[in-house]
Design brief:
By secondary structure, this protein is an alpha/beta fold. It is built from 12 helices and 8 strands. It has an 8-stranded parallel β-sheet. Strand 1, helix 4 and strand 2 form a beta-alpha-beta unit.
């Protein structure tokens, strides 16, 4: 299996200076928006049935980062979410665990205790999530606080203002610094694709994040109007595929925000299989950032097992 690494040696001196980085990012092929959206729409029409659908549902459950990122989060809510991540369906212990629970840094210790011994990871947003508007030393303190509390993964946000102003080296240096502060925790770099305006910018951000050492590239915070879409996720899957082809380094992808139904999840799994390939069909390399998605997956799983749709009281409301 290809490994993650802090830099991309095959790309040489791309990050040696602001000018070389700018030249590289603006030298990437322009995105054919019409073609990208048409391909995403075409792949989204594929359907799967019976055994394949059951496999896809279990795979999707295992890829969920079960998330609560609200100002009203309490230790009790986080403990309940952790219990659900470990046993998504308490009536059926064959149901896979989710990949992770994602919380704010101050809730990491609570989440860690709730999932202890289960294999479920604890992810923490950091770097002044969701806006990312803070000084670098504040962002790094945020990261170190989460890691010291036991976070297995860090979900950081890039400085979109700096990126859109063309200050690519500033964004690169910040990701590198956060990667170092994360230690052994895997780093997911959030672009907030809905604020990047163009597909070309999403492609540039994807390569910038990977060059800086991202273990995952992630679409969104889930806190803006436009979050994960099939088209922007397809574009990021193309980027990780091409990056591995050039460097031998595999990077994960995490669409987040707006993915609520089993039908949506299956569409994204088809995108993964048809674009990046089977190597990414694993929760080490692909995640769904979601809260409500898990409930629909569980109800669809129950439908396949019993032939009946369960009512909304079959699942907990998070």
């Amino acid at each position: 299996m290809p490994t993650t690494a802090p830099a991309a040696p095959a790309l040489g001196d791309v990050t040696a200076s602001d000018s070389t980085l700018r030249r590289f990012l603006h030298g990437l092929p322009g995105v054919d928006a019409v073609g990208l959206e048409a391909r995403a729409a075409s792949l989204g029409t594929r359907s799967i049935k019976t055994t394949a659908k059951a496999y896809a549902i279990d795979l999707a459950i295992s890829m969920v980062d079960l998330t609560t990122l609200e100002g009203a989060d309490t230790p009790g809510k986080v403990r309940a979410l952790g219990a659900k991540a470990v046993h998504p369906d308490p009536t059926d212990r064959t149901t896979p665990t989710t990949a992770a629970v994602c919380v704010y840094p101050d809730m990491v210790a609570t989440a860690k205790a709730a999932v202890a011994g289960s294999g479920v990871k604890v992810a923490s947003v950091a770097t002044a999530f969701p806006a990312g508007r803070a000084a670098l030393d504040v962002k790094l303190a945020d990261v170190r606080d989460a890691v010291s509390a036991g976070a297995d993964e860090i979900d950081m946000v890039i400085d979109r203002g700096a990126f859109l102003a063309g200050k690519y080296m500033k964004v690169y240096d910040e990701i590198v610094a956060v990667k170092e502060a994360s230690g052994e925790a895997r780093l997911k770099v959030i672009f907030e694709t809905g604020e990047l305006s163009t597909y070309d910018n999403i492609r540039r951000a994807s390569w910038l994040g990977m060059l800086a050492g991202a273990d995952f590239i992630k679409t969104s915070t889930g806190k803006v109007a436009v979050n994960a879409t099939p088209a922007n996720t397809l574009l990021m899957l193309e980027a990780v595929r091409d990056f591995r082809a050039q460097t031998g380094i595999q990077v994960g992808v995490k669409p987040a925000g707006g993915i609520r139904t089993t039908k949506d999840a299956v569409k994204f799994l088809v995108l993964v299989n048809e674009t990046a390939g089977e190597d990414w069909l694993d929760n080490h390399w692909f995640r769904f950032g979601a809260s409500s998605l898990l409930n629909d997956l569980l109800m669809q799983r129950q439908k396949l097992a019993t032939g009946r749709y369960s009512g909304p009281d079959y699942v907990t409301v998070d």
